[in-house]
């Protein structure tokens, strides 16, 4: 096994050789990045927790791969193991991305959470458009489970066997499976999964079941009855697609009540979205929310895994799914850890708060954005400190290019941007702030960088 220290070093070296300008930005950024000395996976291990992330198989190289390997002890394929991905045409299987993720995980001593076997979404058209008798439908499902679980037998720590079985009011969701097979499709799927890989932990997974409510109580009652019937069920997955400032107050209590049934609990898809654009106050709130969720898991011994649904804002489903919302993950689009990262780390016992630069900080925001360009703003503010001159640096990760700046002298070399104060605004008094602005071009995506003050 490669040590995580080696991986961290490799990350730094890879960045260093990408160019002198990038190296300069890296060195300035060093205090914040260096503060994350102990990777999340090691902090988690000290607390008996696996810390995971959803991943996209094709991205597992370069910085994305380095961070995924160094920081996380579990990977969940974000899409690669869904039925529509693995059997797009009947009998024609495509395991390439799933295989790649499993191999990557093995190479980096990581667990894999298999996701997901029985769901109403992302099924192949041949399946959803077919008309099947209950017996045919049951055979299809049993074969699917036997094939997929069997393929990865011994290599999957846990399977999300059934995903999103309930409506918000706690009744069963009327899916292809429920409508065709009745509620026992759940017990049958679990039994078939156990037969195909007796060592894998078998989970039921859902969203909006993080707090105590009608839906989570229905799930609780189901798990209790499955246990009573002797149906194989090992765990409950709380997806935790949360909204900023809305971590349920009953999260820990809810985790505990499932644990008391004699099953494990995992936070399986954590992200915490905010209305865009992000700003310093929202990112601080997000840190507190990530910390609260992590702390609730830490507080319950049977909460065994905390997985984020994508570790970087450049690989999150949120912006495409919830218009106007985003910035939901612990890393920004340029792989810089956000306050949220430190929220997780602190709840896992790490002492990682990034030291403020002499009590002064720089916050980056996008004002307006159109198809090819945008206007950006950086505000430098001081509290308990002051500046007589300043320099703000950042690295653009998606090819953004500054065309014009005002109230600062900005230069850009490759991805590295340096903006120094103009002759008239170098002074930032204690309790005061200075802003500068710029126009820039973008295409594809426009993730916000982290600004370092030098
Ligand atoms: C999402 C993926 O992240 C997206 O890439 C895809 O387009 C849609 O599905 N609950 C789940 C996950 O259980 O499988 C979903 O993943 C997010 C919601």
Question: Would you write up a description of this structure?
Answer:
The chain is an alpha/beta fold. Helices cover 35% and strands 24% of the residues. The relative contact order is 0.11. The chain folds into two domains: 15-28 and 358-453, Immunoglobulin-like; 36-347, Glycosidases (TIM Barrel), CATH 3.20.20. The protein contains 15 helices and 18 strands. Strand 1 (50-55), helix 4 (62-71) and strand 2 form a beta-alpha-beta unit. (3S,4R)-3-hydroxy-2-oxopiperidin-4-yl beta-D-xylopyranoside binds next to loops.
Short description:
This protein has 454 residues and is an alpha/beta fold. It has two domains: 15-28 and 358-453, Sandwich (Immunoglobulin-like), CATH 2.60.40.290; 36-347, Glycosidases (TIM Barrel, Alpha-Beta Barrel), CATH 3.20.20.80. It has 15 helices and 18 strands.
Instruction: Please state the average pLDDT score.
Output: 91
How many strands, which pairing sense, and closed or not: the largest β-sheet?
8 strands, parallel, barrel
- How many discrete domains? 2
Shape: elongated
Enumerate the distinct ligands.
Answer: (3S,4R)-3-hydroxy-2-oxopiperidin-4-yl beta-D-xylopyranoside
Number of helices: 15
Strand content: 15-25%
What is the fold named in CATH at topology level of the largest domain?
A: TIM Barrel
Name of the CATH class of the largest domain: Alpha Beta
- Report how far apart the termini are: 38 Å
| Secondary-structure-derived class | alpha/beta
Overall strand count: 18
């Amino acid at each position: 096994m490669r040590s995580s220290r080696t991986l961290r070093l490799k990350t730094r070296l890879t960045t260093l050789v990408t160019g002198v300008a990038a190296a300069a930005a890296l060195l300035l950024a060093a205090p914040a990045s260096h503060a994350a000395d102990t990777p999340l996976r090691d902090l988690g291990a000290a607390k008996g927790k696996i810390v995971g992330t959803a991943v996209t198989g094709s991205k597992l190289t370069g910085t994305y791969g380095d961070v995924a390997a160094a920081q996380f002890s579990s990977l969940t394929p974000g899409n690669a193991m869904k039925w529509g991905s693995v059997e797009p045409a009947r009998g024609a299987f495509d395991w390439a991305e799933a295989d790649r993720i499993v191999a990557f995980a093995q190479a980096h001593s990581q667990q894999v959470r298999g996701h997901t076997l029985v769901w109403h979404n992302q099924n192949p058209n041949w399946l959803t458009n077919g008309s099947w008798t209950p017996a045919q439908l049951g055979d299809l499902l049993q074969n699917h489970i036997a094939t997929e679980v069997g393929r990865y037998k011994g290599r999957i720590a846990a399977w999300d066997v059934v995903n999103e079985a309930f409506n918000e009011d706690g009744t069963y969701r009327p899916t292809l499976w429920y409508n065709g097979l009745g509620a026992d499709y759940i017990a049958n799927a679990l039994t078939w999964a156990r037969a195909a890989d007796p060592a894998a932990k078998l989970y039921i997974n859902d969203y909006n079941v993080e707090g105590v409510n009608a839906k989570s109580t229905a799930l609780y009652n189901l798990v209790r009855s499955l246990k009573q019937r002797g149906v194989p069920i090992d765990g409950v997955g709380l997806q935790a697609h949360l909204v900023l400032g809305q971590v349920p107050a009953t999260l820990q209590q809810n985790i505990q009540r499932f644990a008391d049934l004699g099953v494990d609990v995992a936070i399986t898809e954590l992200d915490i979205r905010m209305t865009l654009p992000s700003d310093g106050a929202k990112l601080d709130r997000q840190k507190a929310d990530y910390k609260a969720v992590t702390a609730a898991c830490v507080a319950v011994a049977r909460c065994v895994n905390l997985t984020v649904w994508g570790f970087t804002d450049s690989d999150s489903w949120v912006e495409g799914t919830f218009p106007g919302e985003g910035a939901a993950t612990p890393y920004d689009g340029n792989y810089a850890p956000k306050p949220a990262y430190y929220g997780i780390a602190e709840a896992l016992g790490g002492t990682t708060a990034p030291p403020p630069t002499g009590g002064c900080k720089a916050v980056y925001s996008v004002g307006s954005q159109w198809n090819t360009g945008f206007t950006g703003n950086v505000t430098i503010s001081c509290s308990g400190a002051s500046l007589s001159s300043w320099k703000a640096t950042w690295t653009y990760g998606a090819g953004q290019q500054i065309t014009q700046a005002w109230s600062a002298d900005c230069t850009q070399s490759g991805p590295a941007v340096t903006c120094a104060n103009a002759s008239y605004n170098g002074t930032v008094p204690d309790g005061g702030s200075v802003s500068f602005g710029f126009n820039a071009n973008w295409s594809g995506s426009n993730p916000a960088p982290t600004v370092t003050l030098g």
